[in-house]
Amino acid sequence: MLRAIRIHETDNVAVALTPLKQGESFQFGDVSVTLKEDIEQGHKFSLKDIAANENIIKYGTMIGHAVEAIPAGCHVHTSNIKTNLGDVLHYEYHPVAAKQPDAEHRTFQGYVRSDGQVGIRNEIWIIPTVGCVNNVAQAVERQAQQYKQGSIDSIVSFAHPYGCSQMGDDQENTRTILADLIHHPNAGGVLVLGLGCENSNIDVLKPYIGDYDPERIRFVVAQQHEDEIQACLDQLKELAEIVGKDVRTEVPASKLKVGLKCGGSDGLSGITANPVVGRFSDLLTADGGTTILAEVPEMFGAETQLMNRAQDEATFEKTVDLINSFKNYFTAYHQTIYENPSPGNKAGGISTLEDKSNGCVQKSGSAPVKDVLKYGDRLKNSGLNLLSTPGNDLVASTAEAAAGCQMILFTTGRGTPFATAVPTLKISTNTALAEKKSNWIDLNAGTAVEGKTIPEVAEQLYDLVISTASGAPAKSEDAGYHDIAIFKQGVTL
Q1: Is residue 106 in a domain?
Q2: Is residue 96 part of a domain?
Q3: Is residue 362 helix, strand or coil?
Q4: In what helix (H) or strand (E) does residue 176 lie, and over which residues does it extend?
């Protein structure tokens, strides 16, 4: 078994793929090194004597600089490395040729909706307009299970704390995301539950929703009914009779829209799971499908890779605006732009934001960037898209679902049980996590350094995506997990 890896031939550090002991020796090309201390899995060690202020090179790029001399064979981490990153930058477009595999022309069994979208689930969603009716929505969800019939996968509610006492862009975020979810193809039917006096009440929300099918989307205003729960159940009973008759049909993989996300990353994320997802993204987009890369703060330090893959100069400029606007968001709230990685990331071997970001963007593969979306935008173009979101796992994943993704691929080195509004597949970076948390992990990408190749595990992942899209449940669905989170900004009244 491979015990350590030098990712790029120019790297002056290597990464432990398993716990290593002081005194072990390694050879990487013409470079040999003997460890001067124990190295944990996912952590870096120096391949040469590194001088103070010398750049640390990983992935063939700078991930920071040494703050003190680091002898060969020593641990390279937060105690002796610091970020090189600054604030808002000027960028130039240097396009690179995108590489994509041949199309595989895959298909899956999905639900074709009247608006041309395709769902991978046939669910009924209960969406509150305001947090004041969350408990009502959850009570209705429990009582509505009696109406599950035919092809209905589930009847679920999505609680959130917003919809009132918001101002400006903060309120717009709530209205836009709720309207996006109401149109989601995984929902064969939707009950929108309002209170009646909230800022984002149903009459205010309807212009955001636009055209809708009144058979499939129903509304209840709680203050207008003596028994609001019974009013909701009456609507859900009718919806269930309609939705339960929907059937799956064969559709091309070009109809798939998949969100790409990572969380609880470790030192293996950029070596196993994220490159596997990147290769999958290339496979799906070659088949005409769509992927979204979100979490903008985790592009900082690797953003030029994405900018130079923009399909044209206009898309490049949108990518520059994506990055710099998010930096300005940080500074507007007097926050440090590079206050990252998290404690869990550091424990897993990630030392700087550049270290984290260069691993993170591996999820985007090598396809051209076709479009850049603002928070709350819905997908318009197939291929690889970038979406403006924070790094927060549930906020970013909810935004990807709201943009139209029917499924989220979530890579993790530390593990997490969460799921958003759509099936959320967990992909582990290492075998130990997959074995320990088999109730969370859907695919073990740790095998990519245990005898399998990145392309082989990516084909495995594509098989899993097709199976999930055709109805096989994710581990989080088996557990009954589902949730949403909306990006909070600004003042609360």
Answers
A1: no
A2: no
A3: helix
A4: helix 168-182
Identify the CA nearest to 10 among candidates 48, 59, 49: 59
Q: The domain containing residue 151 runs over which residues?
A: 123-245
pTM: 0.94
Q: Please write the tens of the pLDDT for every residue from 314-325.
A: 999 999 999 999
Distance of CA 450 to the CA centre of its chain: 25
Q: How far apart are CA 161 and CA 220, in angstroms?
A: 19
Q: Is 471 left (phi over 0), alpha (psi -120 to 50) or beta?
A: left
In a domain, 89, yes or no: no
Q: How many CB atoms lie within 10 A of CB 164?
A: 19
Helix (H, G, I), strand (E, B) or coil at 359: helix
**Distance between CA atoms of residues 5 and 334, nearest Å:** 39
Q: Which pLDDT tens digit goes with each residue over 406-430?
A: 999 999 999 999 999 999 999 999 9
Which residue, of 245, 273, 293, is where some domain finishes? 245
Q: Are 474 and 423 in contact (CB under 8 A)?
A: yes
pLDDT of residue 167: 92
**What is the average per-residue pLDDT within 175-200?**
98
First to last CA, the chain: 58
